[in-house]
Design goal:
Helices cover 15% and strands 31% of the residues. With 331 residues, it is of the alpha+beta class.
Length: 331
């Protein structure tokens, strides 16, 4: 009997130690996963912002239809949707991806019809603008016709064999869930359905030629609860950021063509709740609050029915803030 009693105590102690170790391991693994997803999300957003304006004029030419279709009518290199009660979104226009190369048998060709290795990335609708590099710098020309591997352009160009040929793209970054748990239409297809069906807030990046029917193809990272953007712009247009211009602002309305730097805020949470963790109070006992740019998130907030906010208390969270310079805008 004594042996059985001692064995039972040992088993209980070992089981308790095992469970404690297991919980700690799972919590650490979830935190590492959260940090990796945050880094991936931040790197993706920063990388796209850095390419804003690559191959574009600082402000697109005025006139109906100039970039319609190619960029869903965005009128600037950077287009911002600022919200202080929910996640922001940001669209950048860039000729980021090389779609093909010039195929010029003579080495150098001057014509408004150019031969390319593959014309599949271009058409007279959404993909109708391109620029060859390095022959043409920072300017798009329009594709009027596609015939096999021949592209008819609106301008005669002098191009070189093996020039890279880029197409204009518009990339929109935003979340698929609002702070109250409602779904957001992240890709403009009229549907707010959860793209991956897990009811977790996710960061999406979709381009103007993405398949709008399948939002899951555009997901970058899950567990992103808030994203906010702040801006610095050249107020007086002298090409310098100086004095009071070095102040981060939340809404760049009317100054989109003068933006020179973007600050990115990401609030990301662990994917699994931790029953042994409560993200409800600060060390001094005050209600837990996250300040994400102009957005305040209080985890003790309740709605009119006494229901806790969408930001569940049992998740670990991290707030990441980084700054990106905008470099490709005819400065």
């Amino acid at each position: 009997m004594v042996t059985l009693a001692v064995s039972a105590v040992v088993v209980v102690v070992l089981a308790g130690g095992y469970l404690t170790h297991k919980r700690g391991y799972e919590s650490e693994a979830d935190l590492r996963d959260m940090e990796m997803k945050a880094q991936m999300a931040m790197n993706t957003v920063k990388g796209l912002i850095r390419t804003a304006g690559l191959g574009c004029e600082d402000n697109f030419k005025s006139g109906a239809g100039f970039f319609q279709g190619a960029t869903r009518s965005f009128a600037n290199v950077i287009t911002s949707l600022n919200r202080n009660d929910g996640p922001d979104s940001l669209t950048v226009v860039t000729g980021l991806r090389a779609r093909t190369r010039v195929n010029c048998a003579a080495g150098t060709c001057t014509n408004n019809v150019i031969q390319v290795l593959d014309a599949g990335g271009f058409d007279t609708g959404p993909g109708r603008y391109l620029f060859p590099v390095p022959s043409i710098r920072n300017r798009f020309v329009q594709v009027l016709d596609v015939s096999g591997t021949a592209l008819t352009l609106d301008t005669a160009l002098t191009v070189h064999h093996d020039d890279l040929v880029y197409r204009v793209n518009a990339y929109t970054m935003g979340l698929d869930m609002d702070g109250d748990g409602s779904r957001l239409d992240v890709d403009g297809d009229g549907s707010g359905a959860d793209g991956d069906g897990d009811n977790v807030p996710d960061l999406y990046v979709h381009d103007n030629l993405a398949d709008l029917a399948d939002e899951s193809l555009s997901k970058v990272a899950d567990g992103v609860e808030d994203i906010q953007f702040q801006y610095i712009w050249d107020m007086d247009g002298n090409g310098l950021i100086e004095g009071t211009e070095w102040t981060w602002k939340d809404d760049p309305a009317g100054n989109l063509d003068r933006i020179r730097a973007v600050r990115v805020w990401l609030l990301i949470r662990s994917l699994k709740p931790d029953p042994h963790f409560e993200d409800t109070h600060e060390a001094d006992g005050q209600p837990k609050t996250y300040i994400v740019a102009d957005h305040r998130i209080d985890l003790d907030t309740q709605d009119a029915n006494g229901i806790d906010s969408h930001f569940d208390h049992r998740f670990h969270r991290r707030l990441y803030v980084e700054t990106v310079q905008v470099r490709n805008r005819n400065l």
